[in-house]
Specification:
The chain has about 120 residues and is mainly beta. It contains one helix and eight strands; from the N terminus they run αββββββββ. It has an eight-stranded antiparallel barrel. About 15% of the residues are buried. The model has no long low-confidence stretch (mean pLDDT about 85).
């Protein structure tokens, strides 16, 4: 009986846990002079993202306390997204330059924007 209760508990915990991964299609907007400008569409799947613009490279997604999008538009730009925001339809993000003069480039924000889910 103990094992049955343990099995039921483990299965219910597994169903309750939600995957904290970006999936789906989004418009991305960049903030410029306090206005948001729509740039392109982006598709997320597991740990890779792809732009609709075929000339932009694929990028990698790193999941941790903060979600990082590496190789965003160019190789020096990285995007950070707070983990608690990915369940929302509008996700704010911050841009960082890998060639920043600060010791940790994630400490210096060079721009910001939003991802808006396409339904």
């Amino acid at each position: 009986m103990k094992y049955l209760a343990l099995l039921i508990t483990l299965v219910s915990i597994n169903f309750i846990q939600k995957t904290d991964k970006l999936t789906g299609r989004y418009n991305y907007l960049i903030e410029d002079d306090n206005a948001y400008i729509q740039k392109d569409k982006i598709t997320f799947k597991d740990s890779v993202f792809v732009f609709d613009n075929k000339y932009l490279p694929k990028g990698k997604i790193s999941y941790g306390n903060v979600i990082l999008l590496d190789n965003f538009i160019n190789t020096d730009l990285i995007i950070s997204i707070p983990k608690d925001q990915i369940a929302k339809d509008t996700i704010p993000f911050f841009m960082h330059d890998k060639k920043s003069s600060s010791a940790n480039y994630l400490d210096e924000v060079v721009g910001k924007g939003k991802l808006i889910r396409i339904k």
